[in-house]
Amino acid sequence: GATRASVAAAGDFEWRPIDPITAAFTARLEHLRDASGTTTKESTLGTAHLGFEVARNGFAVAAHGGWVSRPPSFLERFGVVGGYLPTPELRSESAWAIDWGARATRTFGALRLSGEATAFGTLATDLIVFTRTGYRQALKAENIGHAKLAGVEARIAAKWRPLELRASYTFMTTENQSGCVRTGCPPLLGRPQHDLVVDALATVGLL
Fold it and tell me: How far apart are CA 87 and CA 185, in angstroms?
C-alpha cells in the first residue's frame, strides 16, 4: 500500500497597530515522504500569507496575499482502481495569490442583513487538474506548468427570526498559459466561469 509521512512547523502572528486595523502573518514549512512499493518521493513545501483588515461599526475592508503550495493528494498521485488512474510522478502545485474586498452587516429590528464582495487573482505553477484519458475516459491527474485565475465573488444573506436566505455568485476567468497559441490561451477544464448558489433555510425547534 501507499503511505505518507510528514513533519511540519508553523507560525501565526497578529498585530493591532491602532484600534480598527489588524495585521496578520502566517507561515508553514512541511516536509513529506510518499512511498508506494519500491517508489519513494520526498518534497519540502512552504506557505506564507500576509493580510490586513480595517473594521468598524459593522463594516470592514481587507486585503490578503501570499505564496501557497500543496502536495498531490493520495487520490491524485495513486488513483483508485476502476475510477482514477495513478500519476506517481505528479509534482506539488504552488501559486501566488491575492484577494481584496469588503463586507458589511446591518440589523433592523429582527431583520439582519449582511453582504460581502471580493476580487481575487492567482498565478499558479504546476497546477493539478484532472483530465479524461483513454477510451474509457478515466480521470487522471496531471500538472499544468503555468495557469492564471482571476475573478470576483459576491455573497448576501438575510435572516429574519427562523427564516434565512443566502445567495452567492462567482465569476472567474482562467487561462492554461502552457497551452497558449496565437489566438490566445485555453481555459482550464472543470473551472466554471459562472457559479450561482441560493439557499433558503428555516430553523425549527430549540436550535
Answer: 25
Q: Are 173 and 187 in contact (CB under 8 A)?
A: yes
Instruction: Report the predicted TM-score, pTM, of the whole model to 2 decimal places.
Output: 0.86
Give pLDDT tens digits for 178-196. 999 989 999 998 899 999 9
Handedness of CA 139, 141, 144, 149 (dihedral sign): positive
Does pLDDT of 38 surpass 80?
A: no
Distance CA 132, CA 84 (A): 9
